[in-house]
Amino acid sequence: MSVPPRSQAKSMRTEIIVIVVLLLAAAGFGVKHYLDNREVASAAQVQDPAVPEQWQDQGGDRIGALGDQARRVDGDPLAIGAVDAPVVMVEYSDYRCPFCAKFSQATVPVLLAEYVDKGLLRIEWRDVPIFGEPSLIAARAGRAAGEQGRFWEFNTALYAQAPATGHPEFTPADLRALAQTAGVADLDQFDADAASPRYDDAIWADAREAQDLGLISTPSFAINGHPGIGAQPTDAYTDLIDHLLSLEN
Q1: CA distance linking residue 11 with residue 89, whole number of Å
Q2: Distance between CA atoms of 81 and 75, rounded to whole angstroms?
Q3: Rounded distance, CA 46 to CA 119, Å?
């Protein structure tokens, strides 16, 4: 086997060094890109927002790490509260999620009475059907009720009868009965709308929004962009809302 001349060997070593440097630089860029992309997701995965400081992880900023996710569409049937409310809670939930039911039963009534009814808070719903086909079926039914102006009544009725654990199933008869409880006027139209896939694009758009934000469990929240995970004690939410309202003054 022939040995390359010294000059050629030196040139080869130089080329190898250049290639290694370029590869390390590329790897460094890739790591930075990965970490940058994870920054929002990591901020979103707050495990215990019951401590007010954890809600205020942006140094008291009015808009948190997730950015302003409020749509503020006037007449949106999946929203409740003044369109110009100073604080908007975006709720990412699944109808089969027991912790979502807990939040609906224990916390939502307080938020409605203390903030929504006073024009201080708006709640916007996002469908995140993570527990299979029955979750999607229930999400369609919620939107079908919304077509007749009874989305939140249906939402409340469904969660009110949710089991403490496990993931309930929903038959068409179950959904119709809930719609009746919610005061949906035209139940035959509700049945037809709830059985239709015409809401699916909007439902999955909501789910993709949650995924893009790093909100991978239910319920999750963006409260003026401040992230929260899980059904926390009611005070955890009211503490943050009060803090955000104080920034408006």
Answers
A1: 63
A2: 10
A3: 27
Report cis status (omega within 30 of 0) of the bond before 77.
no
User: Who's near 100: CB < 8 A, 6+ residues apart?
Assistant: 93, 94, 159, 218, 219, 231
| Strand arrangement of the beta sheet that strand 87-93 belongs to | 79-80, 121-127, 87-93, 220-223, 226-229
Direct distance between the N- and C-terminal alpha carbons of the chain, in angstroms, rounded to an integer:
83
| Nearest to 125, CA basis, from 110, 138, 114, 134 | 138
Domains annotated for the chain, with CATH where assigned, are 45-246 (3.40.30.10)
Digit-coded pLDDT (tens) for 181-238 = 999 999 999 999 999 999 999 999 999 999 999 999 999 999 999 999 999 999 999 9
* Angle formed at CA 164 by CA 158 and CA 165, multiple of 5 degrees: 110
Encode pLDDT of 25-80 as tens digits: 333 433 233 223 333 333 333 333 333 454 545 446 889 999 999 999 999 999 99
Model confidence at 106: pLDDT above 80: yes
CA R_g for the chain:
24
What DSSP string describes 20-57? HHHHHHHHHHHHHHHHHHHHHHHHH--S-TTSHHHHTT
**What is the per-residue pLDDT for 188?**
98
pLDDT in tens, 7-39: 444 444 544 443 433 343 333 433 233 223 333
| CB-CB contact of 193 with 123 (8 Å) | no
Nearest residue to 135 via CA among 178, 181, 175, 97: 97
Which pLDDT belongs to residue 69?
98
The vertex-127 CA angle with 44 and 143, nearest 5°, equals 155
